[in-house]
Amino acid sequence: MGLLLLSSVSRKPNESMRLIVTTFFGVVLGFLIGVSFPTLSTTRRNVTSALLPGIDFAYEDKKTGLSTQTALNVLSMRNSSSAHNASDTSKIWVRSNPRGAERLPPEIIRAESDLYFRRLSGNPKEDLTYKPKYLVTFTVGFDQSKNIDAAVEKFSENFTIVLFHYDGRTTEWDEFEWSKKAIHISARRQTKWWYAKRFLHPDIVAQYDYIFIWDEDLGVEHFNAEEYIKLVRKHGLEISQPGLDPNGVLTWQMTKRRFDHEVHKETEERPNWCTDPHLPPCAAFVEIMAPVFSRDAWRCVWHMMQNDLVHGWGLDFALRKCVEPSHEKIGVVDAQWIVHQSVPSLGNQGESDNGKAPWQGVRERCRNEWRMFQDRFTSAENAYYQSLGINPSNSSEPH
């Protein structure tokens, strides 16, 4: 018992000394922390305030108890947002680019194309030693190959030649040397306006000054394409056709060849057929069998063509909408004339319906399409004027 008491008494001085030393160091450490904390806090507030000027951290610390960790979290979110915005601005978005190509840099965009052939090897810059300036298309069946061969001879190397095959026969054309350099597109029982709408987009044929869209049954003995274009340029024609042999099949007065003119732009039709001498069929009018379009006129005409009205009937009366003044920029070239042979080849491609011959069904659809096109155009014009608060009947635009 005496030993235990002695041991306990002897340990008290050691524990007391340890407590004193610990307390001393605690006081010193607390003093040092107390002296340094205002500087650290001020520095942090200054840095944070510079980065987040919208938040007064001195005020928040006192009034709301916003912790240092919360401030750092907000700072981290701000930095993350800044990085995200920087990433967004590095992405390309050009509203003036063609629709769908806004994400591309403008310098890489090639909105237009062409029908020029390219090689499979070598330097692309050396592919084209010559670029044709004009385009001629024929919608053909092989039964008319001799006639097309004669027609192609009238077109120089300045022309790209495209054949649209409605009978599916393409390889037989290899007997003609020029055919090996032509472009062949085949779809059975389709019309030239079906082909034109699908394969002659304005951006595809933009390299050509003039586009000829011709039938297969045209006699060209008195026609030369280069001379024709010279006259078209001379007289400022945007839409034109060669004059038709007046001794041929029934045709409009406007498109008949005149012997005393290079070009004519107006005519006199049968009584009561023309309500205005500047309107079709007395002016601003060519037929759809052998039209020739300038690049700019074709851009408009292509958009006016309907996807489902494939015969093009009625289109010739509306062509004037694409040039202004139409009675001056649409005309017939008399000095270069052709013969319309009226071969009913496309009619024979039709199908019998309710006992009708194939050609009868085709002709009936042609007439129906003419009426449908007129109705659509009139409705579209009326809707446009009404959207502007204009009474269509009071519009100065002739219908």
UniProtKB/TrEMBL annotation:
InterPro entries according to UniProt: DUF707 (IPR007877)
Record keywords: Membrane, Transmembrane, Transmembrane helix
Superkingdom of origin: Eukaryota
Sequence intervals crossing the membrane: 20-40
Pfam families tied to this protein: DUF707
Record's protein name: Uncharacterized protein
Gene source species: Rubroshorea leprosula
